[in-house]
Write a structure and sequence with these properties.
Length: 352
């Protein structure tokens, strides 16, 4: 059994010193934290989500510039808007010649926690090929992180809100895009997300019934998984993993919980509101991709969602999951992912 704070050190003269903290039975604390979530906890999170305001507020167009989609003229807009007390930035890209209300939105949710560059949408455009002209593209930053375009940068305010408040930022920008982009329509709304962005995409699909399709690449789904428990154990022992979101969760929830500065019930709700698997019945159509050699987000996260969706009787085309033998945490390690994803996204165009 692991104990924190029981080791008594010595000073430079060899004299014993007092323990730096009270004894903590770490495994017991983790047992309490990672016990199976209850129906009451799930409903408490639903109630919290229901009262959040993600309407388009105080919208300002910061930049308007030509941004061709291959040979198709298109316009890029960088916008700012308010999400509660947070000033948030995002990008909207739309083909110029499209008729009003003719194009579904495709939202791109980025990896990592260092912000997003507008040009990251290039991989999506490349994958879509001849379909690239058929969408309005929406690219949110996340709070406390930059949106970058060429040599310019706009930094969203507020403390980081990995996964949970990332959804607020994305949904608020979606509402901005629908308000200021004549070409956009709400039908066929789709999200593509990788890693952190995939986790956000799944949670957004749960919270907003307008979202119809989610293509999720190797993202987290279950914060009660043993893999997350091991990450929490390492953080508690002073060796947090260098993974997106770990520093935020460690400093904001794990360490305060171990010091009894935050209630167990509150920390457990933080895990619930990041676990899409607990709300699987509310998910729209999902195509899931994950490599079984992924060391960044382990494949058990995919299997958690697969089990939940199978228990609900969700089958293709409403739910598809592809596990790639030897695949790691990169798009190009998943052989065949691009044609599968494009085929899935055709449904947004009424072709699936």
């Amino acid at each position: 059994m692991l104990l924190l704070g029981l080791l008594v050190g010595c000073d430079q003269a060899g004299a014993p010193v007092e323990p730096v903290a009270d004894a903590i039975d770490l495994e017991a604390k983790l047992d309490d934290l990672f016990a199976p979530p209850t129906a009451a906890e799930v409903e408490a999170v639903r109630a919290d989500w229901a009262q959040r305001d993600v309407s388009a507020a105080e919208v300002t167009i910061e930049l308007t510039e030509s941004y061709p989609l291959s040979e198709t003229p298109a316009t890029l807009r960088i916008v700012s808007h308010r999400v509660g007390e947070v000033l948030h930035y995002g990008a909207i890209l739309a083909p110029d010649a499209a008729a009003p209300g003719s194009l579904p939105i495709l939202m791109y949710l980025h990896w990592g926690d260092s912000g997003v560059e507008v040009d990251e949408i290039g991989i999506v455009l490349f994958a879509l090929g001849e379909l690239r002209d058929n969408f309005v593209y929406v690219i949110p930053s996340f709070r406390s992180e930059p949106l970058e375009y060429e040599d310019r940068e706009w930094v969203s305010t507020g403390p980081g809100g990995h996964w949970d408040y990332d959804v607020d930022d994305a949904l608020a920008l979606l509402n901005v895009a629908l308000e200021i982009t004549p070409q956009a329509k709400i039908e066929g709304l789709s999200i593509v997300g990788g890693s952190r962005g995939a986790g956000v995409a799944l949670l957004a699909g749960i919270r907003d019934e307008r979202i119809e399709n989610i293509m999720a690449l190797f993202g987290p789904t279950d914060f009660f998984d043993d893999w997350v428990r091991e990450i929490a154990r390492e953080a508690a022992m002073g060796s947090p993993r260098d993974l997106p979101g770990v520093a935020h969760i460690d400093s904001t929830f794990i360490q305060p919980y171990l010091r009894d500065e935050i209630d167990l019930a509150e920390v457990r709700l933080e895990l619930v509101r990041r676990s899409s698997v607990l709300f699987a019945e509310d998910l729209p159509a999902v195509q899931l991709h994950h490599g079984d050699a992924d060391e960044t987000v382990v494949v058990s996260q995919a299997h958690s969602l697969i089990r939940a969706m199978e228990a609900l009787g969700r089958k293709p085309p409403e739910f598809e999951a592809f596990i790639y033998e030897g695949g790691g945490h990169t798009l190009f390690a998943l052989r065949g992912v691009i044609p599968r994803a494009v085929g899935f996204l055709r449904r947004a165009l009424g072709e699936g």
